[in-house]
C-alpha cells in the first residue's frame, strides 16, 4: 500500500508540466512590476556574510547622490539590518495620506529598513513567506519616487530575499561583493550562477579588503598575494582597501565618502559609481527608453 502511494507520488512529481499546467502555476506568482517613480534597481549581494556588502551599498549610494543622482537605499536584510546605523537614520518612517511610508533621508539618500520598524531588542522570527511580504512592503509600500537609482543591500546567501526581490521588481543589475579568499570567491561564483538563472544581469564584482594603504609611506600592503583567476568569475569593478577609516566611519554613521570627500576612498567609490552609471546606461540603451517609468 505504502509502496504504491510512494510510486504515485514520485510519478506525479516526475511528470513534466504541460503548457496549461505551467500557466496555472504562474498564476500564483507575484507580478513583476516597476516601482512607481524608480528608474533602476541595483542589488548588492554576496553569498558570504561580513564581506562588506552593507558598507559598499551605503558608500555607493552616497557617492551616486554626490554625482547628482536621486538615490534610495533599501535595507533588504530583514534579520540583521545595518543601514540605519551606517546611514544614521533611526527614525520610524512617517506615513503619507495614501498610507505609504516616506523613507527618511540622510546624506541626500532616502533610506528604508526593517530596523526602523522593529524595536532594537525585538527578535524577528519570521519565516519565508513573511520575509517575502516584508520585502514587498518595503519595496512597494513606500513613496520612493522620483528616484534614478534604488540601491538594495541584501543579507548573505541566496535566499528568500533575493528570490522575492527578483519576483516583485525588475532588477537592472547585481553587484557581487567578495573578499579575495577562495571560500568567498567560490560562493560568489555560485551566487552569480543563481542570478544568471534568474536572468538578472551581473554588473561585476567589488573586491573588498585585498590590501591596505600604509598611512605613512602610502605604499600598498597586500594581504592576498595571489590573484585567483577563475574564468566564470564576473569581471572586477573595483578593489576597495581594508582601512580603519572605512570601519570607523561606518561605526559613526557617516559613510567614509561623506566624512572624507577628497580621500582616496572617495575617489575609488566615485570610479565605481561612474562605472555603474555607464553600465546602467548601456543596458537601458539596449532595452529602449525606460523614461516612462520615471516621474521626472
Ligand atoms: N574595506 C573595509 N575596511 C575596513 N572595514 C571594513 C571594510 N569593509 C567592511 N568593513 C567592516 O567589516 C564589517 C562587516 O562589514 P559589512 O557589515 O558591510 O559586511 P556585510 O557583508 O554587509 O555583512 P552581513 O553579511 O552581516 O550583512 C563592518 O564592521 C565594516 O565596517
Ligand atoms: Mg550587511
UniProtKB/TrEMBL annotation:
GO BP annotations listed: iron-sulfur cluster assembly; mitochondrial respiratory chain complex I assembly
Keyword hit for Transcription: no
InterPro entries tied to this protein: Mrp/NBP35_ATP-bd, NUBPL-like, P-loop_NTPase, YlxH/NBP35
Keywords assigned by UniProt, alphabetized: 4Fe-4S, ATP-binding, Iron, Iron-sulfur, Metal-binding, Nucleotide-binding
One Pfam family linked to the record: ParA
GO molecular function annotations of the record: 4 iron, 4 sulfur cluster binding; ATP binding; ATP-dependent FeS chaperone activity; metal ion binding
GO CC terms of this entry: mitochondrion
Domain of life: Eukaryota
Similarity annotation: Belongs to the Mrp/NBP35 ATP-binding proteins family.
PANTHER family: IRON-SULFUR PROTEIN NUBPL (PTHR42961:SF2)
Protein name: Uncharacterized protein, isoform B
Source organism of the structure: Drosophila ananassae (Fruit fly)
